[in-house]
Amino acid sequence: MNHLIVALIIFVCVFCSALLGLYLRTLLPEHHLDDDSIDVVKLATGLIATMAALVLGLLISSAKSSFDTVNASVTRDAVNVILLDRVLAQYGPQTQEIRGTLKQIVTVAVQQVASGDPAQQARLRRPEALERAEDFERKIEDLAPQNDKQRRLQARAIELTNEALAVRELGLLQAAGSTPTALLITLVLWLCIIFGAFGVFTPANATVTIALFLGALCTSIAIFLILEMNTPLDGMVTVSMSPMHEALAVIGH
């Protein structure tokens, strides 16, 4: 489901819980709203709020870590591609075709990632994409070095190819991650209880309603950002592909 729709649903649930609390206040007998009752509910609400804050912080930390990992993998891939192209260029004119294949593979991959289309991005995780990368590595292994320098360059090219594949797979695995549904539902349930309690023990007026509205809006925005950062290759919050575009401008020359 679209992350914006999920955030909107969460906002509606949380804010409606607050409005329900304001309504229930008008129905409850007075002895349910005395100081002792309010103190007990405040303690229970404080406990739930603490747990909700911990879970929200955990989700934010996890999403930020996932986003940073994919962002770093893009930069590392760009560096490896440039280094690999230069090593192949130093090997000699025998690698001209391989360098052309490298640029073609990188161009297609960047286009698929930057498209924002999940169907296009899914192709990066298909066996065919890995087979193309393995075929490219075999072409480097099939080179016939004529001297020690070319043997060293061939070994370095194979090493860079393996590193690029490892980083790419790590980035794709992180990009395919998602927020645990059970944890998200639990968090939203806790938020609804908290905002409902706010409404029950607060006299209804415009200021209170606006405050509850803004609180529900902020929490839904926070969850929206968590969902977006957990899918860093598509959506409104994505990693920058500038390093790969710069690498494409350099390689093959």
From TrEMBL:
InterPro entries: DUF4239. It comes from the Bacteria. The chain crosses the membrane at residues 7-28, 40-60, 182-201, 207-227. Keywords: Membrane, Transmembrane, Transmembrane helix. This is DUF4239 domain-containing protein. It comes from Caballeronia calidae. The lineage of its organism: Bacteria, Pseudomonadati, Pseudomonadota, Betaproteobacteria, Burkholderiales.
